[in-house]
Amino acid sequence: MNEQPSPDAHGTSDEQEPLRIERRPNGVAVLTFDNPAKRNPMSARLTARWQDAMRSLRRDDALRAVVVTGTGPAFCSGADLAELADRHGRGLTDARERLADFYRTWLAVRDLPVPTVAAVNGHAVGAGLALALACDLRYAAADARLGAPFVRLGLHPGMATTALLAEAVGPARTRELLLTGRLISGARAAALGMVHEALPAAQVLHAALEVADEIAAAAPLAVRLTRSGLAQGQPTVEQALAWEGLAQAVTTTTGDFREGVRARQERRRPRFTGA
To answer: Which residue of 53, 91, 107, 123 is 20 to 30 Å from 76, comparing CA positions?
Structure first.
């Protein structure tokens, strides 16, 4: 099912919607940026749509995975520079508050209770790259250009790029990429560990959907708890044992666990319901 947000103060119904939402029968939601002429910038209108989408998805108990992708030559070109430049001269406090709201809105993807997959169909630049890095899994077009060229625009990196990039490629590569503002190919990004795999552009969304479908076919509570555990970063062995002792105990009490065992014994695919 495709969703189209209703018109509001950010635009009229005559304008093209910058975000398309498709909810698939298996609980996978696909969010597609759809302003290819401008390379899918994070405009005020798209940001508002994204915020609405995150609120809606958080309330969806049937949700099992989310795929984020774009149309045209770009995944996302980052913040709308024209809008950002318009705010010049409004003062440090105003700029800080606006940017903090912007960051929180877009990074809300990390607060979703299910795994998220970025299908980086094309260029992912600046905050667009940060968004891809904020997703749990990433698959990119081999010829896409990825990078965070903030310093080449006279800007400090934003939207937690310093942390998210370091989490993906380590501190040494992060220093190299952020201090130079260098753009790299999707193929190079895969070699560095920035994305999980680089593919021909036409195959990226298909690959991401296959992964999302695999996640959706697993036991929902087990997936959500596993994601929560992974989100804790790099725990010590004792911290991991404490979390796993609780989370695994919870899952052993579920009907899905019993179904998983029966399916293994009967050599068939399990039918998980989330119960």
So the answer is: 91
The CATH fold of domain 2-216: 2-enoyl-CoA Hydratase; Chain A, domain 1 (3.90.226)
DSSP β-bridge partners for residue 74: 123
- Residue among 73, 23, 22, 15 nearest 44 (CA): 15
Phi, psi angles (nearest 5°) of residue 28: -90, 130
pLDDT tens-place string over residues 149-160: 999 999 999 999
**What b/e sequence results for 5-40 when a residue is b if at least 16 CB atoms lie within 10 Å of its CB, and e otherwise?**
beeeebbeeeeebbbbbebbeebbbbbbbbbeeebb
**C-alpha closest to that of 175 among 161, 189, 185, 188:** 161
The answer to whether residue 84 scores a pLDDT higher than 90 is no
Predicted confidence band of residue 186 (pLDDT cuts 50, 70, 90)? very high
Residue type for position 22: E
Model-level pTM greater than 0.70?
yes
- Look at residue 15 in the predicted model and tell me its pLDDT: 63
Classified as helix, coil or strand, 34 is coil
pLDDT tens digits for range 28-68: 999 999 999 999 999 999 999 999 999 999 999 999 999 99
Alpha carbon 170 to chain centroid, angstroms: 19
Distance CA 157, CA 122 (A): 21
Phi, psi dihedrals of residue 67, rounded to the nearest 5°: -115, 135
Instruction: Name, in order, each residue with C-beta under 8 angstroms of 234's C-beta and a sequence gap of 6 or more.
Output: none
